[in-house]
Amino acid sequence: MMENSENKEKHFKVPNKHLSKLHEDFLYHIGFSSKDDLPKLFGDVKFVCMGGSAKRMFVFAKFMQEQLIGIVDCKDEPKDICSTDRYSMYKVGPVLAVNHGIGMPSLSILLHEVMKLLHYAKCSDVVMVRIGTSGGIGVKPGTVVVTETAVNEMFEPKYHLAVLGKIKSRNTPLCKDMLETLLSCKQETDSFDVVKGKTLSTSDFYENQGRLDGALCDYTEEDKMEYLREAEKHGVKNIEMESTCFAAMCDTVGIPAAIVCVALLNRLEGDQVSTPPSELKQMEMHPQQIVSRYIKQKLSK
Protein backbone atom coordinates (compact mmCIF):
# COMPACT_ATOMS: atom_id res chain seq x y z
CA MET A 1 0.00 0.00 0.00
CA MET A 2 2.85 2.37 0.81
CA GLU A 3 4.44 1.74 -2.59
CA ASN A 4 1.18 2.60 -4.37
CA SER A 5 0.91 5.76 -2.31
CA GLU A 6 4.44 6.79 -3.25
CA ASN A 7 3.75 6.15 -6.93
CA LYS A 8 0.60 8.21 -6.72
CA GLU A 9 2.54 11.14 -5.31
CA LYS A 10 4.85 11.08 -8.32
CA HIS A 11 2.03 11.63 -10.79
CA PHE A 12 2.54 14.85 -12.71
CA LYS A 13 0.13 17.60 -11.77
CA VAL A 14 -0.34 21.04 -13.26
CA PRO A 15 -0.52 23.86 -10.67
CA ASN A 16 -3.86 25.32 -11.84
CA LYS A 17 -6.32 24.70 -8.99
CA HIS A 18 -9.26 25.95 -11.06
CA LEU A 19 -9.21 22.74 -13.11
CA SER A 20 -10.68 20.78 -10.19
CA LYS A 21 -13.87 22.84 -10.52
CA LEU A 22 -14.46 21.70 -14.12
CA HIS A 23 -16.98 18.93 -14.72
CA GLU A 24 -15.19 18.21 -18.00
CA ASP A 25 -12.08 19.76 -19.50
CA PHE A 26 -12.06 19.90 -23.30
CA LEU A 27 -8.53 19.90 -24.72
CA TYR A 28 -9.96 21.62 -27.76
CA HIS A 29 -6.94 21.99 -30.01
CA ILE A 30 -5.70 18.40 -29.72
CA GLY A 31 -9.12 16.76 -29.61
CA PHE A 32 -9.25 15.06 -26.22
CA SER A 33 -11.32 15.45 -23.07
CA SER A 34 -10.69 14.78 -19.39
CA LYS A 35 -13.63 12.34 -19.67
CA ASP A 36 -11.61 10.15 -22.06
CA ASP A 37 -9.69 7.23 -20.56
CA LEU A 38 -6.45 9.21 -20.66
CA PRO A 39 -4.58 7.02 -18.12
CA LYS A 40 -5.14 4.04 -20.41
CA LEU A 41 -4.23 5.96 -23.56
CA PHE A 42 -1.27 7.98 -22.27
CA GLY A 43 -0.40 6.81 -18.76
CA ASP A 44 2.86 5.21 -19.89
CA VAL A 45 4.25 8.33 -21.59
CA LYS A 46 7.75 9.25 -20.38
CA PHE A 47 9.08 11.36 -23.25
CA VAL A 48 7.21 14.21 -24.92
CA CYS A 49 9.09 15.31 -28.03
CA MET A 50 7.87 18.26 -30.04
CA GLY A 51 8.85 20.28 -33.08
CA GLY A 52 7.31 22.85 -35.35
CA SER A 53 6.48 20.79 -38.43
CA ALA A 54 3.77 18.10 -38.41
CA LYS A 55 5.55 16.23 -41.20
CA ARG A 56 8.86 16.32 -39.34
CA MET A 57 7.26 14.90 -36.21
CA PHE A 58 5.75 12.05 -38.23
CA VAL A 59 9.24 11.33 -39.55
CA PHE A 60 10.53 11.38 -35.97
CA ALA A 61 7.75 9.03 -34.81
CA LYS A 62 8.59 6.61 -37.63
CA PHE A 63 12.29 6.86 -36.76
CA MET A 64 11.57 6.15 -33.07
CA GLN A 65 9.43 3.17 -34.02
CA GLU A 66 12.39 1.70 -35.91
CA GLN A 67 14.79 2.50 -33.06
CA LEU A 68 12.61 1.03 -30.31
CA ILE A 69 11.75 -2.29 -31.96
CA GLY A 70 12.64 -5.00 -29.45
CA ILE A 71 12.72 -2.47 -26.60
CA VAL A 72 9.01 -1.60 -26.39
CA ASP A 73 5.88 -2.84 -28.14
CA CYS A 74 5.57 -0.52 -31.14
CA LYS A 75 5.01 -2.64 -34.24
CA ASP A 76 2.20 -0.58 -35.77
CA GLU A 77 2.99 2.40 -37.96
CA PRO A 78 2.45 5.67 -36.07
CA LYS A 79 -0.90 7.32 -36.74
CA ASP A 80 -2.05 10.85 -36.03
CA ILE A 81 -4.21 10.56 -32.91
CA CYS A 82 -5.37 14.18 -32.82
CA SER A 83 -8.98 14.54 -33.94
CA THR A 84 -8.44 18.15 -35.04
CA ASP A 85 -6.32 19.67 -37.81
CA ARG A 86 -4.61 22.16 -35.48
CA TYR A 87 -1.82 19.82 -34.40
CA SER A 88 -0.61 16.30 -35.15
CA MET A 89 0.31 13.79 -32.45
CA TYR A 90 1.87 10.33 -32.61
CA LYS A 91 2.47 7.80 -29.83
CA VAL A 92 5.27 5.25 -30.05
CA GLY A 93 5.38 3.27 -26.81
CA PRO A 94 6.39 5.75 -24.07
CA VAL A 95 7.22 8.45 -26.63
CA LEU A 96 4.70 11.14 -27.56
CA ALA A 97 5.65 13.10 -30.68
CA VAL A 98 3.64 16.24 -31.45
CA ASN A 99 4.08 19.33 -33.57
CA HIS A 100 3.66 22.78 -32.05
CA GLY A 101 3.55 25.01 -35.14
CA ILE A 102 5.65 28.14 -35.60
CA GLY A 103 6.36 30.56 -32.77
CA MET A 104 5.52 30.97 -29.12
CA PRO A 105 1.74 31.60 -29.35
CA SER A 106 1.17 28.29 -31.16
CA LEU A 107 3.66 26.51 -28.89
CA SER A 108 2.06 27.80 -25.68
CA ILE A 109 -1.40 26.58 -26.69
CA LEU A 110 -0.04 23.13 -27.41
CA LEU A 111 1.97 23.04 -24.16
CA HIS A 112 -1.04 24.00 -22.03
CA GLU A 113 -3.12 21.17 -23.47
CA VAL A 114 -0.38 18.52 -23.55
CA MET A 115 0.54 19.33 -19.95
CA LYS A 116 -3.10 18.94 -18.93
CA LEU A 117 -3.26 15.68 -20.87
CA LEU A 118 -0.26 14.39 -18.87
CA HIS A 119 -1.99 15.58 -15.69
CA TYR A 120 -5.27 13.76 -16.43
CA ALA A 121 -3.39 10.67 -17.66
CA LYS A 122 -1.56 10.50 -14.30
CA CYS A 123 1.84 10.26 -15.98
CA SER A 124 5.00 10.18 -13.93
CA ASP A 125 8.70 10.92 -14.49
CA VAL A 126 8.01 12.73 -17.77
CA VAL A 127 10.59 14.82 -19.62
CA MET A 128 10.07 17.14 -22.57
CA VAL A 129 12.37 17.79 -25.52
CA ARG A 130 11.94 20.37 -28.26
CA ILE A 131 13.52 19.15 -31.51
CA GLY A 132 13.83 21.94 -34.02
CA THR A 133 15.59 23.87 -36.74
CA SER A 134 17.34 27.17 -36.23
CA GLY A 135 19.75 29.72 -37.60
CA GLY A 136 23.27 29.30 -36.27
CA ILE A 137 25.55 32.00 -34.90
CA GLY A 138 29.18 31.18 -35.68
CA VAL A 139 28.50 27.46 -36.24
CA LYS A 140 28.52 25.63 -39.55
CA PRO A 141 25.28 24.36 -41.13
CA GLY A 142 24.26 20.95 -39.83
CA THR A 143 25.59 21.56 -36.32
CA VAL A 144 23.32 20.41 -33.48
CA VAL A 145 22.97 22.95 -30.67
CA VAL A 146 21.82 21.67 -27.27
CA THR A 147 20.50 24.71 -25.42
CA GLU A 148 22.28 25.65 -22.23
CA THR A 149 20.13 28.73 -21.57
CA ALA A 150 17.20 30.21 -23.48
CA VAL A 151 17.36 34.01 -23.79
CA ASN A 152 15.10 36.70 -25.21
CA GLU A 153 15.94 39.44 -27.72
CA MET A 154 17.72 41.44 -25.00
CA PHE A 155 19.81 38.35 -24.13
CA GLU A 156 17.98 37.91 -20.82
CA PRO A 157 17.09 34.42 -19.51
CA LYS A 158 13.48 35.55 -19.22
CA TYR A 159 10.12 34.93 -20.88
CA HIS A 160 7.76 37.92 -20.75
CA LEU A 161 4.01 37.37 -21.00
CA ALA A 162 1.14 39.85 -20.70
CA VAL A 163 -1.50 38.43 -18.32
CA LEU A 164 -4.58 40.51 -17.45
CA GLY A 165 -2.86 43.67 -18.62
CA LYS A 166 0.29 43.09 -16.59
CA ILE A 167 3.67 41.72 -17.67
CA LYS A 168 4.76 38.51 -16.01
CA SER A 169 8.42 37.53 -16.25
CA ARG A 170 9.34 33.87 -15.90
CA ASN A 171 12.80 32.35 -15.72
CA THR A 172 13.95 30.02 -18.50
CA PRO A 173 16.19 27.32 -16.97
CA LEU A 174 16.62 23.93 -18.62
CA CYS A 175 17.62 20.59 -17.12
CA LYS A 176 21.40 20.37 -16.74
CA ASP A 177 21.39 16.57 -16.44
CA MET A 178 19.51 16.24 -19.72
CA LEU A 179 21.90 18.71 -21.34
CA GLU A 180 24.98 16.71 -20.38
CA THR A 181 23.42 13.37 -21.31
CA LEU A 182 22.32 14.68 -24.70
CA LEU A 183 25.81 16.02 -25.38
CA SER A 184 27.24 12.59 -24.55
CA CYS A 185 25.02 11.01 -27.22
CA LYS A 186 27.32 12.35 -29.95
CA GLN A 187 29.14 9.49 -31.67
CA GLU A 188 32.53 9.56 -33.39
CA THR A 189 30.96 8.36 -36.63
CA ASP A 190 28.54 11.31 -36.79
CA SER A 191 29.16 13.66 -39.70
CA PHE A 192 27.98 16.67 -37.69
CA ASP A 193 29.09 18.59 -34.60
CA VAL A 194 27.14 18.79 -31.35
CA VAL A 195 27.71 21.88 -29.19
CA LYS A 196 26.07 23.59 -26.24
CA GLY A 197 25.26 27.26 -25.99
CA LYS A 198 22.60 29.88 -25.47
CA THR A 199 19.58 29.93 -27.76
CA LEU A 200 18.08 33.29 -28.72
CA SER A 201 14.27 33.08 -28.85
CA THR A 202 12.45 35.72 -30.91
CA SER A 203 8.85 36.58 -31.75
CA ASP A 204 9.40 36.83 -35.50
CA PHE A 205 11.45 35.26 -38.31
CA TYR A 206 12.38 38.48 -40.09
CA GLU A 207 12.79 41.84 -38.31
CA ASN A 208 13.04 40.31 -34.83
CA GLN A 209 15.99 38.24 -36.03
CA GLY A 210 17.65 41.09 -37.89
CA ARG A 211 17.06 39.73 -41.38
CA LEU A 212 17.43 42.03 -44.37
CA ASP A 213 15.14 40.04 -46.69
CA GLY A 214 11.68 40.60 -45.17
CA ALA A 215 8.90 42.79 -46.55
CA LEU A 216 9.86 45.42 -43.96
CA CYS A 217 13.37 46.47 -42.95
CA ASP A 218 14.37 49.92 -41.64
CA TYR A 219 17.90 49.07 -40.43
CA THR A 220 21.21 48.64 -42.19
CA GLU A 221 23.39 45.60 -42.73
CA GLU A 222 25.84 47.17 -40.29
CA ASP A 223 23.07 47.36 -37.66
CA LYS A 224 22.25 43.70 -38.26
CA MET A 225 25.85 42.53 -37.98
CA GLU A 226 26.40 44.55 -34.82
CA TYR A 227 23.43 42.82 -33.18
CA LEU A 228 24.44 39.32 -34.29
CA ARG A 229 28.02 39.85 -33.11
CA GLU A 230 26.66 41.06 -29.77
CA ALA A 231 24.59 37.88 -29.57
CA GLU A 232 27.72 35.85 -30.26
CA LYS A 233 29.55 37.69 -27.46
CA HIS A 234 26.74 36.68 -25.10
CA GLY A 235 27.31 33.02 -25.97
CA VAL A 236 24.38 32.62 -28.36
CA LYS A 237 24.87 29.69 -30.74
CA ASN A 238 21.51 29.74 -32.51
CA ILE A 239 18.25 31.62 -33.04
CA GLU A 240 14.70 30.26 -33.17
CA MET A 241 11.21 31.29 -32.04
CA GLU A 242 10.12 29.05 -29.18
CA SER A 243 12.81 28.35 -26.58
CA THR A 244 12.03 30.93 -23.86
CA CYS A 245 8.34 30.01 -23.79
CA PHE A 246 9.14 26.29 -23.80
CA ALA A 247 11.74 26.56 -21.02
CA ALA A 248 9.63 28.88 -18.84
CA MET A 249 6.47 26.77 -19.03
CA CYS A 250 8.30 23.50 -18.36
CA ASP A 251 10.11 25.07 -15.40
CA THR A 252 6.89 26.52 -13.98
CA VAL A 253 5.12 23.15 -13.95
CA GLY A 254 8.22 21.20 -12.90
CA ILE A 255 8.92 19.12 -16.01
CA PRO A 256 12.64 18.55 -16.82
CA ALA A 257 13.22 19.85 -20.33
CA ALA A 258 15.81 20.21 -23.07
CA ILE A 259 16.06 21.85 -26.49
CA VAL A 260 17.96 20.24 -29.35
CA CYS A 261 18.08 22.12 -32.66
CA VAL A 262 20.04 21.88 -35.88
CA ALA A 263 21.49 25.05 -37.38
CA LEU A 264 20.48 25.25 -41.04
CA LEU A 265 22.81 28.17 -41.79
CA ASN A 266 25.32 30.52 -40.18
CA ARG A 267 23.56 33.87 -39.79
CA LEU A 268 26.90 35.67 -39.73
CA GLU A 269 27.21 34.70 -43.40
CA GLY A 270 23.68 35.37 -44.66
CA ASP A 271 19.93 35.36 -44.09
CA GLN A 272 18.43 32.90 -46.55
CA VAL A 273 18.24 29.13 -46.27
CA SER A 274 19.44 28.16 -49.74
CA THR A 275 20.51 24.59 -48.94
CA PRO A 276 19.00 21.99 -51.34
CA PRO A 277 15.93 20.20 -49.89
CA SER A 278 17.69 16.82 -49.86
CA GLU A 279 20.49 18.21 -47.68
CA LEU A 280 17.97 19.96 -45.41
CA LYS A 281 16.21 16.65 -44.77
CA GLN A 282 19.52 15.11 -43.76
CA MET A 283 20.24 18.03 -41.42
CA GLU A 284 16.80 17.74 -39.83
CA MET A 285 17.66 14.17 -38.86
CA HIS A 286 20.72 15.25 -36.84
CA PRO A 287 18.85 16.33 -33.67
CA GLN A 288 16.46 13.40 -34.05
CA GLN A 289 19.42 11.01 -33.95
CA ILE A 290 20.75 12.61 -30.76
CA VAL A 291 17.33 12.54 -29.05
CA SER A 292 16.65 8.95 -30.11
CA ARG A 293 19.93 7.84 -28.53
CA TYR A 294 19.00 9.71 -25.36
CA ILE A 295 15.63 7.94 -25.19
CA LYS A 296 17.13 4.50 -25.86
CA GLN A 297 19.76 5.12 -23.18
CA LYS A 298 17.12 6.04 -20.62
CA LEU A 299 14.90 3.07 -21.50
CA SER A 300 17.82 0.65 -21.17
CA LYS A 301 18.33 1.54 -17.50
Largest sheet: 5 strands, mixed, barrel
Total number of strands: 12
* Cα end-to-end separation: 25 Å
Shape: globular
The helix/strand series, from N terminus to C terminus, equals HEEHEHEEHEEEEHEHEHEH
Lateral strand order in the biggest sheet: 6-11-10-7-12
Helix content: 25-40%
What's the pLDDT, averaged over the residues?
A: 95
Poorly predicted runs are 1-7
Q: What's the number of helices?
A: 8
Radius of gyration, whole Å: 19 Å
Indicate the structural class.
alpha/beta
Beta content comes to: 15-25%
Would you kindly provide a written description of the structure presented here, covering whatever features stand out?
This protein has helices at 2-9, 38-42, 54-68, 104-120, 176-184, 221-233, 243-253, 277-299, and strands at residues 26-27, 32-33, 47-51, 89-92, 95-99, 127-136, 144-151, 158-163, 166-171, 194-201, 236-240, 257-266. It has 301 residues and is an alpha/beta fold. Helix 6 (221-233) links the parallel strand 10 and strand 11. The longest helix is centred in the last third of the chain and has 23 residues, at 277-299. Mean pLDDT is 95; it is low at 1-7.
Layout of secondary structure:
Layout: H1 2-9, E1 26-27, E2 32-33, H2 38-42, E3 47-51, H3 54-68, E4 89-92, E5 95-99, H4 104-120, E6 127-136, E7 144-151, E8 158-163, E9 166-171, H5 176-184, E10 194-201, H6 221-233, E11 236-240, H7 243-253, E12 257-266, H8 277-299
Parallel strand pairs: 3-5, 3-6, 6-12, 7-10, 10-11
Antiparallel strand pairs: 1-2, 4-5, 6-11, 7-12, 8-9
Helix pairs in contact: 3-8, 4-7
